[in-house]
Q: What sequence folds into this?
């Protein structure tokens, strides 16, 4: 009996001890990153790329063909509106004006001649009428006289019409002659001088040699033109704050505000209008409020952050600390299997380090930027929220042992954009 009793105790120990060890053994605490939730100013924004340009800029092109005889300015020179800039050879145009002036004089002489002829025919008709009254001439002679007067009147009207035509041609010739002298249409700086003395200026809408003379710009009207994707254009309104980072001065952001929002998207030459599948963008113009005395030139590329919303001072957490049932990498999302996500209400939560244990807190979120998420409810300022590592955070369960001391939240700053184009 004693041997059987000992054997039973041994068998019980063999089966019970592992089970007891399984329930009494604790998982090792996981090392996590913890950060205290704090108040920050979160600004949601849209990123866009573009370039600098002058708001007031004129590209001068010739309206007539001619060889450049004199250039009165040089690149970089300041000019006022109406200043003489360039002169084309005008000999042929002066000869054309002289020819048309002679044609006008000839037509005026013809009118004088037709007026004399008409007066003569009217006098003859009156004498014929007197003779016809005393039966000295026939009715046919009277009819011929009247016909001659009417013909003289018609010829006079033709001469006057030809005079108007000649005067119109003369005005055109004078206009062409005047266009050989190029004057400044606006006040500004000569930013580009594309032609030299002796070269031939060509009136053309195609970018060929001689079709561009010079460029005048008001350098105090520098602005930015950025391409905003159609998915973000609804969030852009006039007057929104913009931070501009140029490629030449990447560490010096410039301040600006949205000045012009186009009604139609940018059209690319050669792109079919009906291309519904093509990505569309809008050329939004941003006015610079402070250039910080930087040497800015048109054509410089830049990146713009258009701030579309601001949370003010509000509780926020790093984006990676906020989990969601829409995140396919979390265990919660994997357990949903084939359930339709559209029918499941989106839920967000965080894990708080509560005395070495992971405590799940359901939170309400607000606006976000590229690094921070606004928290409207669910946690309090100063609580230590687990922010990573993500490979541990996404598998974390309520009650899991964790270790990690809360780090102080970084200073409240204005963060970057949430969407890009």
A:
């Amino acid at each position: 009996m004693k041997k059987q009793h000992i054997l039973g105790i041994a068998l019980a120990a063999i089966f019970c001890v592992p089970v007891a060890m399984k329930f009494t053994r604790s998982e090792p605490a996981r090392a996590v990153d913890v950060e205290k939730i704090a108040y920050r100013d979160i600004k949601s924004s849209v990123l866009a790329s573009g370039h600098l340009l002058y708001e007031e800029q004129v590209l001068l092109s010739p309206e007539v063909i001619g060889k450049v005889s004199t250039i009165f300015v040089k690149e970089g020179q300041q000019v006022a509106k109406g200043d003489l800039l360039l002169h084309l050879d005008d000999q042929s145009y002066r000869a054309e004006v002289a020819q048309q002036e002679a044609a006008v004089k000839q037509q005026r002489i013809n009118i004088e001649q037709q007026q004399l002829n008409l007066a003569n025919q009217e006098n003859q008709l009156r004498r014929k009428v007197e003779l016809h009254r005393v039966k000295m001439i026939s009715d046919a002679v009277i009819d011929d006289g009247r016909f001659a007067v009417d013909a003289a009147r018609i010829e006079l009207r033709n001469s006057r019409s030809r005079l108007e035509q000649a005067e119109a041609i003369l005005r055109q010739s004078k206009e062409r002659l005047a266009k050989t002298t190029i004057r400044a249409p606006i006040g500004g700086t000569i930013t580009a001088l594309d032609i030299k003395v002796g070269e031939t200026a060509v009136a053309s809408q195609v970018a060929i040699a001689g079709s561009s003379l010079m460029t005048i710009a008001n350098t105090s009207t520098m602005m930015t033109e950025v391409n905003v994707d159609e998915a973000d254009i609804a969030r852009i309104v006039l007057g929104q704050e913009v931070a501009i980072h140029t490629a030449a001065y990447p560490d010096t952001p410039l301040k600006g505000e949205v000045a012009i929002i186009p009604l139609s998207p940018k059209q690319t030459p050669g792109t079919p209008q009906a291309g519904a599948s093509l990505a569309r963008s809008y050329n939004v113009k941003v006015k610079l409020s402070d250039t910080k005395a930087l040497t800015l030139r048109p054509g410089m590329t830049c990146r713009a952050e258009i701030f579309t919303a601001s949370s003010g001072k509000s509780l926020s957490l790093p984006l990676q600390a906020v989990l969601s049932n829409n995140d396919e990498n979390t265990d919660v999302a994997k357990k949903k299997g084939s359930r339709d996500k559209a029918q499941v209400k989106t839920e967000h939560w965080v894990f708080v380090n509560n005395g070495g244990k992971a405590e799940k807190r359901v939170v309400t979120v607000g606006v976000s930027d590229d690094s921070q998420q606004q928290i409207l409810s669910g946690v309090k300022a100063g609580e230590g929220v687990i922010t990573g590592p993500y490979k541990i955070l996404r598998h974390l369960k309520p009650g899991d042992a964790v270790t990690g001391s809360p780090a102080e939240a970084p200073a409240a700053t204005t963060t970057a954009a949430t969407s890009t184009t």
In short: The two ends are 86 Å apart (CA to CA). Residues 7 and 13 are 10 Å apart (CA to CA). DSSP finds five helices and 23 strands in the chain. Residues 91-133 form the longest helix (43 residues).
